[in-house]
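Morning!

This is the sequence you dropped in the shared folder:
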Amino acid sequence: MSIPGPNLISAAALIADPSRASILLSLLGGKSLPAGELARSAGVSPQTASAHLAKLVEGGLLVRETQGRHKYFRLAGRDVAHALEALHAIAPPKPVRSLRESDQLRARQARTCYDHLAGRLGVAVTERLLELGWLEADGSRDFALTELGRERFADLGVHALESGGRRRHFARQCLDWSERRPHLAGSLGAALTARLFELQWIERLPAGGPSVTAEGTRGLASAFGLSLEPAPGKP
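The structure's back. C-alpha cells below.
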C-alpha cells in the first residue's frame, strides 16, 4: 500500500544514475555551469548530458538559465544541496583508483556546500567558533549564537538576522560528508562565507572549490586563532 506524500522514489531514481549524480555534485558548490562543462565532468557526450539535464530540470533538482545563446544549470535550491550532502555523509567511500585521485583528496582544503563553507576549512572554522564561545552546540540540529558571538561577528562585518520564523535555519549544523563532522550552514554560515570572499581571505578557483589566500591565512589566524596547514605541494 502506497503512503501519500512526496515521491521519494522518483527523486532517488534521478540521483541514483551515475552520470546525473556526477552532474549534481559538480554543482554542489552553488555555481551555475554550462551544459558542455557538465558533460565533460560526467564523462558523457553532449547529447547524453542534454537528456540527463532535461530530466533533472523536470524533476525539480536543477534550474536552467539562458544567457544569450548559452544555457546554464544550477541546483534548484539549498534543500537539494543539503540532500546531496546528507547522502554523501551516509554513503560508503568510493575506492581511490589512481594517484591523481589520492592527491585530489589530500589537497581538498576547502569547498562550498551551496552557499556556505564546507570541507576541512569549513569544519575547522566551525570548531574554532565553538572553542571561542561564539557558538554553542546544545544537542539540537542548530548551533546557538552567543552574545559574545553576536558581537564578534559584527566586528568582523558579518551581519545575518536570526530567522524569526522564516523557513531557512539561522545557524544550522550540517554534517560534512568529507570530514564526518558538522560545519556551520544556514543564513549565518552563508553570511560568514560571503564575508570571507569579500575580505579576499578565500577566492574561488576557475575549477574546483575555494582556496585560502595568503591574506586569508593571516586573517584567519588573527580573527580566529586558526593555523592552517598548507595543502600538499604548496610551500
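Headline: The chain has a mean pLDDT of 83.

More detail when I'm at my desk.
O.
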